[in-house]
Structure formats: C-alpha cells, structure tokens
Amino acid sequence: MDSCVRSLTRALVGIVAVGFAASTAWAGVADPVPLINGTERAKALYLVPGVTADLDDLGTTITCTSLEKLKDQIVAVEVFNEDPGTVINDITLGDGVVGTVSPGETVNVEITSDTGGILAVNADLIIDVGTLLHGSARVVSTSKKLMCTASIMDTENNPPTSAWQINLIVKKQKGD
Fold this sequence. Notes:
Radius of gyration: 19 Å
Distance between the termini: 52 Å
Number of strands: 10
Structural class: mainly beta
Strand content: 35-45%
C-alpha cells in the first residue's frame, strides 16, 4: 500500500512539474493584453518569435500598415525577454506605444540594443531592450485591421549588408 501511495505521489508531482513548466514556457506572449497607455483596450494580432537586439549590430524591425478605411487605431509592441518570457517594456505606461495610426498609414518599430536604431530604417519608435538574443514580441492594436511584417537586419549599414524576414504568427481572436 505504501509503495502505491509513493508511486501516485511521484506521478502527481511529475504532472504538476510538467504543467508548471508548460505554463511558464509561454509566459508573456500568452498573457492577457494590458491596456495601452493604461486606458485603451487592445487585442494581440501578431506574435513575433526570434526577436534579436545585440551589440554585434543586429536589430529587429516591425513594420505595420493600417487597413482601416475611416478611423484611427493605436498600435503598440510588447517585447519579451528570452528567459522566462517576461515583458521588457510596459505599454500601460506608453513604453512601446507607436501612438495613433491613421487609415492607410505605415509605421516602423525598431527593437535595438541602443537608442541609435537601425540606420536603414526610418523609425517611428525605437524600443531599446539592451542585449536580447532569443526574445519575442507581440503586436497589439485597438483594431484588427492591421497588417505587419518583421525582419532582423544589421543596424550599421544603409542599405543593410545582412537582413532576413521573421515569420509572424497570427493571433486568432474569438469569432474569427
């Protein structure tokens, strides 16, 4: 009987440990979206894996275009650390908020290791995250009518001598 209880206890501890590890692996990007500037409700539209900003002259750029026809929207980018996926910038305080994006307008957000930005990109917003080698990001907006792309490129050259696109993951919304 005691060996049965011990076996069940071990199995339960193992299940709890696996569940805890699984829940912390997605901490951050799977968390509820905070209010932009502390007041505006938003939805997560895109998840961006592989965000990089390092002192070897690499940075990440996210470019988004509003597909709205008549109304403005507010766009923000949250950046998450590689371990354990904690948010680096606080969009509730305006850090990472691009601001109001008009219908048809395109905005560029740079994620870099310094405030100098990416030379080849005309940034609307620079998010200085220090060194980030395996981070992620989440594009949030007050409207679902937004298309985005992302890339990593060298920060020092115009045109960049190295650049590659990052695949964005579309975040499904209820009712989609």
